[in-house]
Amino acid sequence: MWIFPILLLLVQHSTGSILPTESPPEDTTISDERQSQCTKEFEEQDQQLTSLKAQLNVYRDKARELEMLLNYSNTMGERLWESYKAQTDFKEQVEKILMKEIQVQNSTIQLEEDQRQSFENRLNELEWQLKNRDLRIMEIETQMKHKEDRTRGYLKTFMDIIEKELEGKNADITLSTENSSERREIQASEQMEDLKEQADAKQISSDQQLKDKDTELLLKMVKEMKEQISKMEMQIQARETQMQSHDKSIRELVDQVNFLKRTWTGSCLPFTNSTDIYTIKLPGMGSVDVPCNSSVSGSGWTVIQRRVRGNVNFNRTWSEYKHGFGDLRENLFLGLEKIHLMTLLQPHELYIQLQHANGSTSYARYDDFKIGSEAEAYKLKSLGKYSGTAEDSLAFHEDMKFSTFDRDNLDCAKYFGGGWWFDTCAESNLNGIYYPNGTSSKRDGIFWGAWQKDNYTISLTFTQMMIRPKVM
């Protein structure tokens, strides 16, 4: 609209040198009014232009702030990813080292068992050989006894024959002379002595040969046994040295893991008999503030979820559930990544408190709670054994991935509201919509089905989930 007065002024200015300098009085008055109107419109347009420039500057500043926030968000995302990746790599490296050491240990134990079995087999073989040697000696002694008996029988028979011959000769021959008889007796006696000495010499020679042969065999066997035992002792000593080295390596690894548990895996256990906000350390994340609770079932509990009133919306995005949200002293969800890192290196207990709008309370407790990493969609990997008064409404969700409305694995989060380990769909959901009066029109409140006898119009008015390292 302001273009036409400007064009009119331009025409007037451009034609002013051609038109006569004197104009009718009425024309001059009209021209002054027109000029005043145009000046006023110019001023208004300048003001509008100035306002637009100011707004443009504001938008530019906001755009720069958004760009800085985006860059900061990208930088933090990269750092978090690098931290998570480093932590995952470290975990895999520790697991590989432990598995390798366990395999080496098992191989060493198997090798030693095989050697022990071989040694026992060899000892059994040597014992069998010794038994056979004893049987052989007994057999040789028996043979020697038989030979001695036979020799004695031969001598007796020979003596009987000689006596019979002497008796026959004495009967046939007359007593000629005393000297002849004596010579014959002496000769016969000498022959008997010679035969006896020959028999004894043969017996002694045979016994000595047998003894020498058995002694030589026994000495050879003893020597072989000593050599084998010496070799086995050296092998056992070498294996013991190797076992000591492996034991030392395993102890060092265990010490490293324990050091990491003490240094990195934080919990509220050190803050006994206290319910307050404390700082713990988590791997890849550093120092983290967490609410600790020592007023329920002992001390050392870390609160990971709490609902006390409806001033905090729990129908959040995946990113918000990952990093956590809320007030550490009131309504809160600590964050899936923190919970994963806390339950990563050691088993944890889970304690859940529940309360109706009418004031009745109950609890559920699990002795081996653990969730997976983000790559596993923070799966509810383990719950362990249940105990409590609320009955078990969480086992239905075990081994299920976490879901939110923007990352819904089973299209349940959009219907129920809030993030949870939904199956098809839920027997419990402690992150649903908060209803102060304790009732919901549909199944989107805070519920624990087993305690409510599957009455899903009931919505709990207080819940608290806590974890702590399991005391072995």
Per-chain topology:
Blueprint: H1 3-15, H2 25-172, H3 178-263, E1 276-282, E2 286-293, E3 301-307, H4 318-323, E4 325-326, E5 332-333, H5 336-342, E6 348-355, E7 361-371, E8 380-382, E9 386-388, H6 413-416, E10 428-429, E11 447-448, E12 462-469
Antiparallel strand pairs: 1-2, 2-3, 3-5, 3-12, 4-5, 6-7, 6-12, 7-8, 7-9, 10-11
Helix pairs in contact: 2-3
Describe this structure in words.
By secondary structure, the protein is of the alpha+beta class. Helices cover 56% and strands 13% of the residues. It has 2 domains: 39-162 and 194-264, no CATH class; 277-469, Gamma Fibrinogen, Chain A, domain 1, CATH 3.90.215.10. Mean pLDDT is 79; it is low at 1-28.
Low-confidence runs of at least 5 consecutive residues: 1-28
Question: What is the gyration radius calculated from CA atoms?
Answer: 54 Å
- Assembly of the depicted chains: single chain
Distance between the termini: 85 Å
Strand residue content: 5-15%
Overall number of strands:
12
Largest sheet: 10 strands, antiparallel
- Which term fits the overall shape? elongated
Helix-strand category:
alpha+beta
- Portion of residues within helices: 55-70%
Number of helices: 6
Count structural domains: 2
Elements, N to C (H/E) = HHHEEEHEEHEEEEHEEE
Give the overall pLDDT as a whole number. 79
Protein name: GL25691
Keywords: Coiled coil, Disulfide bond, Signal
Coiled coil: 42-69, 109-143
Pfam families: Fibrinogen_C (PF00147)
Nutshell version of this structure?
With 472 residues, the chain is an alpha+beta fold.
What key phrases describe this protein's structure?
ten-stranded antiparallel sheet, alpha+beta, Gamma Fibrinogen, Chain A, domain 1
